Amino acid sequence: MRRIKKNLNLSRMKMIAFALLAGCDYCPEGVPSIGKEKAFQYLRELPDDVDILKRLRNIATLKEENASDGELNETTSKFEKLIASHIKMLKNFPDKAIIDEFLRPRTCPNVEIGSWYMPSFRSFHSFMIRKAQWTSEYIISKIFPLITFWYLNYGTKLGLFIGEQPKIKGIFRQRVRNGVPCYEVQWERLDEDVWTQKEFYLTIEEKETIDKTFPHLRLAYLERVEHAKAERKIQVEFDIMHSRAKKDR
Question: What is the annotated signal peptide range for this record (predicted)?
């Protein structure tokens, strides 16, 4: 939080306001036509002593032409009028329940996990559809990386599978994430996935883990890369020869 405050000039309350304006898991749409960039610019320009959550509540109760109190610069005043013009489409903005959830103290119990079973795709999908109204595509984008992480780090050793075991297709390309060498990996579509039309899934996995677990895929990937380089070299040489032949005519 200190880094966010220092680098972005956003306090905790401004971060909550940002989530309400631009959208978050609790209110995915946010305020229509606002977006991340406009919300960020608006919040950065507000003085630190402004009670932003109270201000949003006040804006929600004002008419569009009186949305700003005149104490702020012209850009900020226009933005608050823009907020006011769209808030009327929303019910119960800003939602007190969402604000309370953000402000609720988080406590992490000290629990030792003896065995970690593979995350259940079907159970997670059912829960998030029922509780959060996530789309199936979004659910898969969140749960499948957890499934592959468990599979690569625990499943190949413990074998504590629940449901369908993920099947790796191959390495798509090499990447670096947060300074760590990684692969973008293709996985076969799960038979349990009856909700989307995906032909395969993509995840980013650490290179070291894939190299140790699937050395044959690493070799296949390197062979494919070398083959592609050779083809490009042949194409370049052909283009050069073709260009010279045209000049000699």
Answer: 1-19
